[in-house]
Every structure is written in structure tokens, then in C-alpha cells.
Amino acid sequence: MPSKTFPGNYFEDFAVGQEIVHATPRTVTEGDIALYTALYGSRFAMTSAATFAGSMGLERMPVDSLLAFHLVFGKTVPDISLNAVANLGYAGGVFGAPLYPGDTVTTTSTVIGLKENSNGRTGVVHVRSVGVNQKGETVLDYVRWVMVHKRDAAFPAPETVVPDLPGAVAAEDLHVPFDLTGVDYAGELTALAGSTDLWDDYEVGERIDHVDGMTIEESDHMLATRLYQNTAKVHFNALAQRETKIGRRLIYGGHVISLARSLSFNGLANAQVVAAINAGVHANPTFAGDTIHAWSEVLERIELPGRTDVGALRLRTVATKDRTCEDFPYKGEDGKYLPEVVLDLDYTVLIPRR
Amino acid sequence: MPSKTFPGNYFEDFAVGQEIVHATPRTVTEGDIALYTALYGSRFAMTSAATFAGSMGLERMPVDSLLAFHLVFGKTVPDISLNAVANLGYAGGVFGAPLYPGDTVTTTSTVIGLKENSNGRTGVVHVRSVGVNQKGETVLDYVRWVMVHKRDAAFPAPETVVPDLPGAVAAEDLHVPFDLTGVDYAGELTALAGSTDLWDDYEVGERIDHVDGMTIEESDHMLATRLYQNTAKVHFNALAQRETKIGRRLIYGGHVISLARSLSFNGLANAQVVAAINAGVHANPTFAGDTIHAWSEVLERIELPGRTDVGALRLRTVATKDRTCEDFPYKGEDGKYLPEVVLDLDYTVLIPRR
Amino acid sequence: MPSKTFPGNYFEDFAVGQEIVHATPRTVTEGDIALYTALYGSRFAMTSAATFAGSMGLERMPVDSLLAFHLVFGKTVPDISLNAVANLGYAGGVFGAPLYPGDTVTTTSTVIGLKENSNGRTGVVHVRSVGVNQKGETVLDYVRWVMVHKRDAAFPAPETVVPDLPGAVAAEDLHVPFDLTGVDYAGELTALAGSTDLWDDYEVGERIDHVDGMTIEESDHMLATRLYQNTAKVHFNALAQRETKIGRRLIYGGHVISLARSLSFNGLANAQVVAAINAGVHANPTFAGDTIHAWSEVLERIELPGRTDVGALRLRTVATKDRTCEDFPYKGEDGKYLPEVVLDLDYTVLIPRR
């Protein structure tokens, strides 16, 4: 009798063009919003208050788009990265329809790249993953690539396909879920939003130390990662991790993304929406007990076609462990990430204009 | 003035036939569902996605039936087992009306058995506990028995009444909350459910190692046990536990049941509903830091009267601490549970047929 | 370019009469209720069961009023107490309109007192903070005062203004959110509420040991404090706390208030509503690992104007760390709090009459 359990796919199980429908669609609720707040302490007004979301022209209070990211990511883990050596990168992450409580997200991935490594024991798999809601609208579309073990090193290498990766998501591909036409955001909403700094006030090259720090406990990251139904063993199984070189549980990189975004409120309070994830690197592992700080740099100030109410900022947000960010720690002279840097995220936020 | 605090009942406070209305009815919400997901990472599709539940003919997404179990169990603790030495067993647990967000559960217990131990200091109490929803429909009906301290060893022993305990819940007593008539579950829903293995594919005697492991932290089990409003002191009070032989907080046995059920997804993904708990033993205590693994054996494959869309499997699921389950650890040559075995649960799940 | 981050206000930034609109209004949901239950295990029936709330004449199940307190308090932290040396006291806290899931709370504070300390480096700021719902109804109105650092000791002292602090909230100012006219609470609801002791059964001077104890973990208090969007650094940043005399994270005093209230169920089960906070002192710091116990004394038995269905009790609830309360620990012979006492709360609850 064949095994009833699924060991995850190995490198030789993937083929370019293969489409994988991921298990367990997920209905998002107000319960998820409360937990997200409890896990990260996020204070962006549009995703905290129905009244504020209403003032921005939304019919209801949406879910933080990073929660949509985690749910879509989590679904792909059992099929794509259960046997991964490393999560190598993200590209072209576009958030589409906002996610509201009651919506159900279903995720499908397509294999778009395969390249066996020269050691013959691992290979790199590129997938494009798309989360859609119950109406068939795209909630998130992004590419990630992972290094995956081969089950059998003797298995012949597939033809190498390296996909053209998108650069930063273009202005015309950003989805703005709100409309401030006729709204005096600068005059009426900034006090409740927590800052008077709007799109117009940021400059390319400007760097912001987000000041605050947050220590992560084992329960915190495991609650989060289970909430996203992410099944990667390294986050949960202390017994198995004891046998590894690292010796302990690793924190899901997305947990650090959400913490950094939450810390960025102090300096970016009007950046109400994460609209795109252009690229991202989990530069070093994070463990329970680490205290996360973050700083950001404005990479681009983007005008949105046909919109005078809102603009976009392309940001680099860097998160560190056990090191404050007043000196903007990043890379050493050798061009490598400093050992305290855990996240280098290139993403795009929406922020009202004057 | 009599004390305002309630010390819990002692053995001599119980009488056969006595009915106890338990305090604090409990309204279940989407917040409970989100927390349940965060605590256990459960991935069964029917209780994760409203769309999937709809495809199975349910009007809304129901709550995991084990959450109903924990809520009903929790209510009985202040009256039944606050002065318990040990929770000895379960029998005849039948899940009735599915629980939906917004439903309120009220729990009542009837004492059905009493037997003083020969030491004169403790006795065994059997209770049948019934949780009903706001419409008066039974949500859960089960028997458990506990060993309870006497307040006063000199108090005369009651007449011994040992109830006839039900064996495994019979096929005709199982409640199926969904209807797959006209639904091509095998063709259309298995990809989203996470497995193509249906009722027809399991064989009596088949054993499944669920592979994954989950480490428990103090916060995790305390959050869960408080969510269920279970007041057993041993789970919460490190100060008092330091004075005991065991020296530390004990994890609520039901927390391990839910973890084992969640781990069983890998091998039993289509077992959408726990319909009955036939018997259960918490074989050894579980503590924070322990990593739980689980394996299952198919005890019976049960046809349901008048149903060709769904069948039942009677399962034994065994959970271990700090030991993987590829060799199906259970009992030693002396017939006693191995020290790593923490749960031996005999229960019945519903699983669609081809 | 001016800094985009907000360092919080210092003593010299406050002026008597100044009004501060606090950032991030907050919509309360069923998710918050579930988390509140998971964090404290509260068992008061009116805030646990929609059916019970309905029996008390409420249209829906309200949120625990202490959750409203935490949300309002949390909002004031970034503006009022980010640079505080200590939270000195509370007064005149009146709960108004009950908070229901879906309601949004917005908080505003007015500076009502300023007094520089003789050391010239700190001063005491009194603020009156008001939380209103989306209909403009007051949810909570209270005064607190904090000792805040000066940014610059050379800055001249302001004119001293010490406000007249209200004493205990008067009977006519208490808001009763339910109506038991025509309801036989004593006969029909006490079993579900968990006690037959009603307003009539308590005597002034009576003391109650609430018996149970609860150990706090780092994750527990941080989840709670983030849920309230409270940004006080001392609760979250282990790295920064290591540099302080105390060496570790401090637990938010409000977390202890909610734990003490939850423990008080055993002895005060019919005290369904906290209607006022008259005064409060966080007598000693609480840390992760501490086990909290509590006891209460009845300070006053208050008749409510025009009401025969319900009365109020003014209570002192004292919480301790790592010490049980059968001997009602409070102050030493020197009049100072015992080192194990962490909370001395003077508040008023509503409790049905016979």
C-alpha cells in the first residue's frame, strides 16, 4: 500500500509549466486581524479602524496585505519548499484585490524555472504563486525561488530554464484599493493616522531609523506561522532541530517582515498599504530571544498614473537582530550583509499626497 | 459569613443522579477559530475555508468539533475535577449538531457512577456531560471518569455504582453534518483537501506515521486552556506546581489531542470531521518543551446507514513526546505504555467515499 | 530634513489645556474577545455568552470593559508616557456606553495638570483621556498622571497646576448597561453565572481570597500589550531592558489588572461589569515567570438611584506575585506595600440584587 503521507516534492518532481493547486483554501476573519495585531502590534490606521478605512473610501476595513502574503506563502510550503535547503528570493509581488474578513483565498503555483546545481544534489526551482479570492480576483501574484534537495542524485538534470525575473513592480501595475478624491486627508486624517508626513515629504535617499525594538519569543513566531498554516518543520520541531548544525528552531522569515513593517510605523505612519514586494532577502537566521529593530531608505518616489491623491514610495527596509539602527547597519566592506542584518526587503507602499 | 469562593466538589459531594448545571455558557466566534488555527495549525479544509464547507453542502464554515469538546470539557472542570487526582478516561463521546460561529454552548453533567477507593481517601466519579447550543440541540454528549479526593476520609463510602460504559460509538449514532450527494468530491475537492486518499483507500490494521512534530511552549498550552475556560490549577500555577512531586505545570491533555489531530492531516487529510470519541487515555504527562509526534492505526472501516457518499474510520491515534513515530511506539512487553507515549485516543472520523 | 520619527513628548512639551488626538482609532471585534479570553481565562457570563447577555436585556454580547480600558490607555502611550519614569495613578475612571464588536474607539487626552519636580529633570503630567465610539458616545473617561522626563533640564518650569482629582466615582455617575426588570436573575441565572452570591450577600469589610493563581509568560503579556497597540518600550525590548537597572522586560500594569479581575471570578462571579476605576497603584513591578494571586475587600455597598435590580460594590482588589493570598497581604507596618504586592486597585463593579 502506498504511503498516505506526503513527503513534499523533491527537485526531480518539478517540471517547467507544471501547475500545482495547493491544499487548504483559507477563509480570513476578524479573528485573524486580532491575532495579527497581537503578534505585531501594527498601528496603521486603515487596517486598524473601520471608521478610518471608511474615510479613505473603502466599504469595509481590509486585512493587512502582508497577512495575505503569509497565507498565500504558507499554502505553497508543503508542495514547494518542504525539502528546501533555502528560500532564495522573491520578485514581482503584486497585491491585487484587497482582502476582507469573510474572503477565502485559494493558491496555485506554476513552475517557471529549474536549474540543477553543479553538485548534482540540489537545484533551484522558480515558482509563480497566485492567490485568488472566492470571486476569482487575484489577491497576490508573486515569484519566489528556492533551493530544493534532489531525492536521488543520480536522477538526470532537467533542461535549465531561468525565467526573466521582473524588476521592481511598475507604477502602472500597482493596485490602489482606496480613493481619496474629495477627502482632505492632510487636514483631517493625519492626526488619527499618527503623522503629518505624506508622500510629498519623503525624499529619495532619505533614511529613517524606526527606533523601536521588539523581542521575539518561541510562542510568538509559532503562533504566527501556524496561523498561516505554514508547515515548514524548521519553525516548529525543537527535537529535530537539535540534530541540525543550527541546533534550534528558525523563525519564519515572513514573521520578521511583518515585525519590520509594524516597527516602520514610527516614521512611515501614512504608508497605509504595502502594494508590492519587489525583492527580499533573509540575510541571516532569526531565533527566539532576538530583538528586532529596523530602518528604511526611500529608493524611489513614484507618481501613480492618473492619481493626484496618492503616490507610492519604493522602500528598502532592513531589519536587524540585537542591534539598534541609528547607524543604518547593512553590508560590510566585503559587500556581504552584516551578521546582525536579518532582512533586506525592497517593497512599495502607498501613501497619500497633499 | 460563608465563603464566597467555591473550592470545587469533593468525592462525598457527589450523588448518583445528581445533575450539575455548569457555569458560564460560551459563545463561539470566528476569533476562536483563528486562535484554534494559531494554536494547532490545523489544515482540514472543511474547517478552514467557507468555500470548501459550502462545496460539502454546509451553509457556513463550522468550528472544529474538538474545539466543541474542549469548551464542554472546560466547563465541567470547576465542578467535577478541580479536586481530581487524575482524569481516568472518556467513553461514548458523540458529536451532534455542528457548532457555528455565533452559537452558544451550555453544559450540564449528570453523575452516573460512584466508587470509593479502598484507601478511603479518594473515589472514582463517572459523569455524563452534555453540551447544547442555544436552540437546545446537543453538540456533544460524552462520559468521563475521574479520581477525586475526599474532603474527609471519615465520611462513609456511598453505595458503589459502576455504570455500563458504552463501547465504540455505533455507526447509527454518528452524526454526519454534511451531504455530498451530487458532489464529485473525489474529482473536484481532493486537490484542495490535500490528498486523494478517501475512505475506500484505508484498510483495517493500516498504520500511518504522521511524520511532523510540534514543540509546545508554556504560553501555547496556557492560551489554549484559558480559551476553553478550563480552570484546572495544574496547568497555570507554576508556584503551586513547584511544591508538587512533578515540580512544574502539566499540559491539558486535550491540548495534546488537538495537536495530534492536527498532525494527522498528513495521512488523513480527508478525515474532515471527528464524529466520536470512543475512549482515550493520557498515558503520560506532557510538559512545555516536549515535541509531539503522532501515528494512527485504522481500527475499523465503518459503512454509515443509508450513506454512499461518506464512511467512517475508527482510528487509534497515539501521540508521543520527544520521540518520532516511524516505529509506531505504543506499549512495552509488560503491556504498559512506553514512557514517551502521552496519548492513546480511540475515535471515529468521517471521510468521503469515492 | 526633520526627523520622520516621533520620540514622544517630554515634560516641557505639555501645556495645561492642551488637547491631544491620539493616533490609530481601533475597531473592536470578536477576535479581540477571543484573545482576551485566551489571555486571561475570564469567565463572567455576560461577556462570555450572547444568550446570557440577552437574558440581562442586552441586545448583543458586549466586550469586557477592561478591554476598553486597555485600548484607550494604549492609544495614549505614544503621546503621554513614552518618556515616562513611572505611571503614578488613576482616578475618576467612568465606563460609559458598552463596547460591542464592530465599534471603533477613538481617544483624545487633555492636559489638566503640570508640576515640575524639585530635581528639575522630571515633572508630573495629569491628563484626562476620553475614548469615544463611532457614534460619539463616551466609552471611557479617566484621569491618569505620570512622571515624565524633561528633554532639557534647563527649560524653565511651567506654572504648577494640580487638578482636583475626583474621589471614588459617585453612584449617580455609574452607567448600568443592562436592565434586569422582570428578570428573575437570582432564580434563573445564578447557576449559569457560577454563584448564588448577589449584591445583598456582600458586607462592607468582607475580604475574599480568590484562591487561584496564574503564571505569566513573556509571550502572554507581549501579545496582550501589542493587542492594545500600547507602545511602551519597557514591555517589548529585552535588548534595551538589559541595559537598565531592572535588567528585563516589565509587564504592563493593565495586564495584571485584567488577570486579577479574571481571578476574582472565584468569589465575585456575579460582578458582571466593571463600571468605574476609582484609583489604582502598580505597587511593584511584575515580570515573566511571576505567579499572580489576588484578594478583594468590599469597601462600599452602593445603592444605585432608581434601581432595585442591581447595586454596586466598591472593591479593593490586591494582586500579589509569588505569594498566595489567604492572609490578605497588603502593607507592612511601615505603611508601605509589601514587596509581593503588585496591584492595589480601587474600582466599582455592578452586581444584580435579589
Automatic annotation (TrEMBL), chains A, B, C:
Q: What is this protein called?
A: 2-methylfumaryl-CoA hydratase
Q: Which EC numbers does the record give? A: 4.2.1.148
Q: Name one GO molecular function term.
A: lyase activity
Q: Which residues cross the membrane?
A: none
Q: Which residues form the signal peptide?
A: none
Alphabetically sorted, this entry's keywords are: Lyase
Q: Give, as one word, the top-level EC class.
A: lyase
